[in-house]
Write a structure and sequence with these properties.
The structure is a single chain. This protein has 565 residues and is of the alpha/beta class. It folds into 2 domains: 408 residues, no CATH class; 138 residues, no CATH class. The protein is built from 17 helices and 9 strands. Strands 4-2-1-6-7 form a 5-stranded mixed beta sheet, covered by helices on one side. The longest helix is centred in the first third of the chain and has 45 residues. The N and C termini lie far apart (54 Å). The relative contact order is 0.11.
Length: 565
C-alpha cells in the first residue's frame, strides 16, 4: 500500500474508532452530571476565573507536591476549559477527546509495529475496554487518563524517536500524576525489533535501572514533602497486596471482554440491544470492506503447522508472538502499584483500578483476534471471524450504553434528592448535622448517587459566610447506625461506623443540632423527634427561622436545582 493511501486509511480508522468510542461511552453525555470525587473538585474549578485557576495550579505544584499535583491540576484546567466552551457538557467533550487521543496513539503504535489490521483490532479493544467502567467519569477522564496518554507517547518516542525523551515523558506519571501506568513502561524493550539476546538484555537492564531510580526517587520526594506512600501499610502487607493484585487484575481485565457481552444479553435492555445490533453491523462491514494489509493467504495455517523451528516462522507470526508476550507483561505490570482498590469489583468507581491495564489487555486481545482472522482466512472463511469479532465488539458497545444509563440515572437521583431535601432543612446552620436514613435512597451499579460525598455538597449549593466557623453537612447514615451513633456522653458521633462520608467531615453533635430525614412511601420526611435509642429519648433540632434561602447560590445550585427535572 502506498504511504499516502496508508495515511488516509489511518485517518479514516481513527475517525471510525472515535465514533465507536463516542457511542459506547458518551452518546448520552449531554445528560451526565457530577459524581463522587467530581463533587470535590469540579464545582470549585468551574467557579474560578483564569487567574484563580493559574494560582491554584501554582499552589498545587509548590504545596501539594506529594499528592499527584498534575492529576488534580489537569482536572481543574480541563473542567474549567470545558465549562467555558459549553458548560458541563463541554467538560465531557474534553474527556472524550483525551480518550480518542489515547485510542489513536495505541492504534498507531500497533500499526507501526505490525499492521493496520492489528492496529484496528487493538483500537477497538482499547475503545471498548470495560474492566474499567470509568472512562467518562470526569475525575478520571480529565485527570487519570492523562497518565495513559503520557505512557503511550513514551512508547512511541522510545521505539521511534530520541529514547531519552521517553523517560522525560514517563517520569511525571510516577512523580506528579496517576501513578499506576508507570510500571507498564518497563515492557518497552519487548516491543522493540530483536537485535540479538545480548543487546536485548543490556537494553532491558539499563531501562529497568532507570525506571527503578525514578520510582525510588518519587517515593523519597513524596515522603520528604509529607505525602503518604502505600508502603506505610507495611512492607509485608504491601508485597502481599501487590502479588494478589498481580493475579486478580489481569484475570478480570481479560475476563470482562467475555463477561460484558453476557451481561448485555441477559439484561434485555432495548437501548443496549439496539446499539449492539447497529454497531455489530457497522463493525462487521468495516472489517470486511477494509483493504487491510497483513492478511494471510489460504493454506497458511497448514504451512504454519509444519514449522518446527521458531526461525522458520513467518515474520508477521514472530512479531505477533513477541507482541503477545509484551501484552501479557504490560498487563501484569499494570497492577503492582494498585494498593487501595479492589480489582475484583466489576461495577462502579472502584473499577478505576484497571485504568493502567487497558494497553496490555487490548494488545493481548488484538493479537488473539488477529490470529483468529488468520486461522479462518486459511480456510477462506475470514467473514466468519469478522462476524464473531463484530458480535463481541457490538455487545461491548451495548454494555457501554448500560454504563451511560446508570450515569444519567445517578444524576437524576441527585437532582431529585436535593429538590426534596432543601425545603425540609431551611433552618440548617453551622454545627447542624443532617442525617439521611439510607433505606429510601436509590443506588445504581456503575457510579455513586447520594453516597459518601453527600457531606461536601451543601456548602457548594449555598455560599456560606467566610467567617462561619462551620457549615451544615448532610450525611448518609450507615445501615446499623442506631447501635453506634450515641457516645458515652450523649453526643451523636459521625465516623466510619455511623455514616458513609470522608474522614475530614467526621465530628460530634448535640442531638438538638441534628436533623433526621427518613423516607415515607418514597418521599423524604423530616423526623420531628424525639428520637428513642436504647430506651433514651434524644431531642432533635426543632424547626427555627430559615437560614438557607437567604444565602447566595453556589454553582451546584445551578446544576442541581435550576436544572432539576
Amino acid at each position: 500500500m502506498k504511504p499516502t493511501a496508508l495515511r488516509s486509511h489511518r485517518y479514516i480508522d481513527v475517525l471510525f474508532l472515535g465514533v465507536i468510542f463516542w457511542v459506547a461511552r458518551y452518546l448520552l453525555s449531554a445528560h451526565f452530571g457530577l459524581y463522587e470525587d467530581d463533587l470535590t473538585r469540579i464545582p470549585d474549578a468551574i467557579s474560578m476565573n483564569f487567574n484563580e485557576i493559574w494560582g491554584h495550579l501554582t499552589f498545587l505544584m509548590t504545596h501539594y507536591f506529594a499528592n499527584r499535583p498534575l492529576h488534580e491540576g489537569f482536572i481543574y484546567i480541563f473542567s474549567w476549559l470545558g465549562w467555558q466552551i459549553n458548560g458541563l457538557w463541554g467538560s465531557y467533550w474534553i474527556g472524550f477527546l483525551i480518550g480518542v487521543i489515547n485510542i489513536a496513539l495505541f492504534y498507531l503504535l500497533l500499526t507501526k509495529l505490525h499492521s493496520r489490521l492489528l492496529g484496528l483490532l487493538g483500537g477497538l479493544a482499547f475503545a471498548l475496554f470495560s474492566a474499567d467502567t470509568t472512562q467518562a467519569y470526569l475525575t478520571l477522564s480529565l485527570g487519570g487518563q492523562i497518565s495513559n496518554t503520557l505512557l503511550l507517547l513514551a512508547f512511541h518516542v522510545y521505539l521511534f524517536g530520541p529514547r531519552w525523551l521517553s523517560y522525560l515523558l514517563v517520569y511525571p506519571i510516577i512523580l506528579f500524576a496517576y501513578e499506576t501506568p508507570f510500571l507498564v513502561f518497563l515492557a518497552a524493550p519487548l516491543l522493540e525489533k530483536p537485535q540479538g539476546s545480548r543487546h536485548f538484555w543490556k537494553t532491558a537492564l539499563l531501562h529497568g535501572a532507570i525506571l527503578l531510580v525514578m520510582l525510588l526517587s518519587s517515593f523519597l520526594m513524596r515522603y520528604s514533602r509529607g505525602g503518604s506512600i502505600s508502603f506505610e501499610m507495611g512492607y509485608r502487607e504491601a508485597l502481599y497486596t501487590a502479588l494478589v493484585q498481580l493475579i486478580q487484575g489481569p484475570a478480570v481485565a481479560l475476563g470482562t471482554y467475555l463477561l460484558r457481552p453476557y451481561q448485555v444479553l441477559v439484561a434485555l435492555n432495548p437501548a443496549a440491544s439496539s446499539a449492539s445490533l447497529i454497531c455489530f453491523i457497522v463493525i462487521a462491514l468495516y472489517l470486511s470492506a477494509g483493504d487491510f494489509d497483513g492478511g494471510f493467504e489460504p493454506g497458511f495455517l497448514a504451512d504454519l503447522l509444519r514449522v518446527r523451528k521458531y526461525s522458520e516462522l513467518d515474520e508477521r507470526v514472530r512479531v505477533l508472538l513477541r507482541l503477545v508476550v509484551a501484552g501479557v507483561v504490560m498487563l501484569l505490570l499494570a497492577y503492582p502499584l494498585t494498593f487501595t482498590t479492589r480489582l475484583t469489583a466489576i461495577s462502579g468507581r472502584t473499577t478505576r483500578g484497571h485504568l493502567a491495564g487497558v494497553s496490555g489487555a487490548s494488545l493481548v486481545l488484538a493479537c488473539f483476534a488477529y490470529a483468529l482472522q488468520a486461522i479462518f482466512a486459511s480456510y477462506s472463511h475470514r467473514r466468519i471471524a469478522n462476524i464473531f469479532l463484530a458480535g463481541i465488539f457490538g455487545l461491548l458497545v451495548g454494555f457501554g450504553i448500560l454504563i451511560q444509563q446508570d450515569y444519567v440515572k445517578a444524576w437524576e437521583l441527585q437532582k431529585e434528592f436535593w429538590a426534596e431535601l432543601l425545603p425540609l432543612i431551611p433552618d440548617a446552620s453551622g454545627q447542624t448535622a443532617i442525617l439521611i436514613q439510607p433505606e429510601g435512597l436509590k443506588d445504581v451499579a456503575q457510579i455513586g448517587a447520594n453516597t459518601w460525598n453527600l457531606s461536601r455538597v451543601l456548602n457548594q449549593v449555598y455560599l456560606f459566610p467566610t467567617a462561619a466557623a462551620s457549615v451544615p453537612r448532610v450525611y448518609r447514615l450507615a445501615p446499623d447506625w442506631r447501635s453506634k451513633i450515641v457516645t458515652a456522653d450523649g453526643l451523636f458521633q459521625i465516623n466510619q461506623e455511623t455514616v458513609t462520608a470522608p474522614p475530614d467531615n467526621y465530628s460530634s453533635f448535640e442531638s438538638n443540632n441534628v436533623i433526621l430525614i427518613s423516607t415515607d412511601n418514597g418521599i423524604l420526611k423530616r423526623v420531628p423527634g424525639p428520637l428513642e435509642i436504647n430506651g433514651i429519648a434524644y431531642p432533635l433540632k426543632p424547626r427555627t427561622d430559615s437560614v438557607l434561602p437567604s444565602l447566595p447560590h453556589g454553582i451546584l445550585y445551578q446544576l442541581l436545582l435550576d436544572e432539576a427535572p
